[in-house]
Design brief:
With 226 residues, the protein is an alpha+beta fold. It contains six helices and nine strands; from the N terminus they run H-H-E-E-E-E-H-E-E-H-H-H-E-E-E.
């Protein structure tokens, strides 16, 4: 049982002040608004501002969520990479519908994306893999993500073996079990904390499937109660 009392937890409450999000503040399309907020939180020094919570549902209907890193945002959607045999990748193949949440607490902001994920092409996967730090390339080979491990030593041993297999100065090939997903958004909601929990929630909703994130004519904006 937790040692925290209800009053202690209530005492953690933060008063959101100094921010607002009016319709007149929004960019014309969701990509421009997301880019503006991402640049703002990055300039403010938030650690890993591209960290996002990814929620999935697997073939058995079991839901789960984890934090991954955004590696691209453009007119098509939001991109991230993972082991294609991981729990998240298996779930997305079974049920492509997903949600992304960017929790920028220090700026009293949050962005929520609802959409469907689709695999990225082998060429896109290989291009990004070549841009990764060498240790990250080796780690992609070393970790059978989501599979049980007997111990930490097992993972360290795999890494040491791979460092010998591909010594410094040699190219590390992209594994065929590693790649990316593109999340095509159906909605992108921007949340701004306000006093008294009367927050601002403005949501871009796609007028048609596959709407480009940089096309103002492809989206409508609605305000939702906090």
């Amino acid at each position: 049982m937790s040692d925290w009392t209800p009053s202690e937890l209530a005492g953690l409450r933060v008063s959101y002040a100094g921010g607002r999000l009016l319709e007149s503040d929004l960019a014309a399309a969701p990509l421009a608004q997301f880019d503006a907020w991402l640049r703002d939180v990055s300039a403010a020094g938030l650690p890993e501002p591209n960290a996002m919570v990814l929620a999935t549902v697997d073939a058995a209907g079991e839901s789960t969520a984890r934090t991954v890193l955004l590696k691209g945002a453009d007119a098509a959607g939001f991109r991230f990479f993972t082991n294609l045999d991981s729990r998240k990748a298996r779930a997305l193949r079974a049920h492509p519908q997903t949600a992304l949440v960017f929790p920028w607490h220090a700026r009293h902001r949050q962005v929520t994306v609802l959409g469907a994920a689709e695999p990225m092409s082998p060429a896109e996967n290989a291009a990004y893999f070549r841009a990764r730090p060498r240790d990250s390339q080796l780690a992609a080979w070393a970790s059978a993500q989501s599979a049980p491990l007997e111990s930490r030593a097992e993972l360290d041993r795999r890494m040491a073996e791979l460092e010998q297999r591909w010594p410094e100065g040699t190219d590390v090939p992209a594994p065929d079990f590693w790649g990316g997903f593109l999340v095509r958004a159906a909605s992108v909601e921007f949340w701004q904390g306000r006093p008294s929990r009367l927050h601002d929630r403005l949501r871009f909703e796609a007028i048609r499937p596959g709407a480009a994130l940089d096309d103002p004519g492809a989206w409508r904006v609605r305000r939702y109660a906090p």
